[in-house]
Amino acid sequence: MILRGKELSVKMQENLKLKAKTLSDNSYMAILFFGNDFSSGTYVRHKQKYGESIGVPVKIFTEEGFSPLVQEKESFANRVFNLIHQLNHDSFCIGIIIQLPLPEELKGHQNELLSTISPEKDIDGLGGVNTGLSSTGLIDFIPATPKAVITLLEEYKLDNLKGKKVAIIGQSNIVGKPLIMECIKRGAIVSSFNIDYTPEEIKQFTQKSDYIIACTGQVHLVDDSRIRHDQSQIIIDVGYGHIDGKPVGDVNIESIADKVFAYTPVPGGIGPLTVACLFDNIFTLQGYKKILEKYRG
Description:
Number of domains: 2
CATH architecture of the largest domain: 3-Layer(aba) Sandwich
Low-confidence stretches: none
Order of helices and strands: HEHEHHEHHHHEHEHEEEEHEHH
CATH class of the largest domain: Alpha Beta
Number of strands: 10
Oligomer: single chain
Largest sheet: 5 strands, parallel
Radius of gyration: 19 Å
């Protein structure tokens, strides 16, 4: 079975269009995009196009947008901090994203920049407040990519994780760690791995798992040597890269497709659904405004 996230993202558009009609005029989402990373530029354009399709304008802020006078007086990092503060206090701005990866001159400030975003506008959930509040049960919030994984499993009625063994390869703050928490909340028995584990160590767990979620960005990390061959496992590929100009993920689809119960394709799997879930998070956080106001910086 192929788990098609692209089709579900299109399906979600209609519901998001209705939600967008409840927003005040001049509302917009802000994307801070610095540097010239090609893949990031592609993601930003996809987000802008999707926003337009549901009626949520997307404004893109780049380094070129800073006035020459400001550029002379302030460091690059300070300019970005000030921009975030301005957007935090702009009532028309309903969501703020810092597109990653950041250029070298900002990488040392990454966590601080992300945590500067007001929680009620942190639709990516990378500032830490929203995921922390969600883990304690004060709000129900999932960052966009983990939310895409859970949403896709729900769509295909594969979301009953109670007692299931789930192997998560990758422990990033963006995907791996929040996914671990979401699976645990749903009763899964979770094993998680990072680059410190050897392929043989990972293999021992993945072959015994009911679900394998790969989110490392390391192309074709998972192949048929990491799985059982009994058509029972569910493979979720969150990674994205290229081989010979062709988009591929963490999973070598050709080698596993006929040996598992279900898998996500790349492209057309988690990627497009992540964009839909990102916009859905705007409305999730709108519902928690009164709670989140207490945690403004």
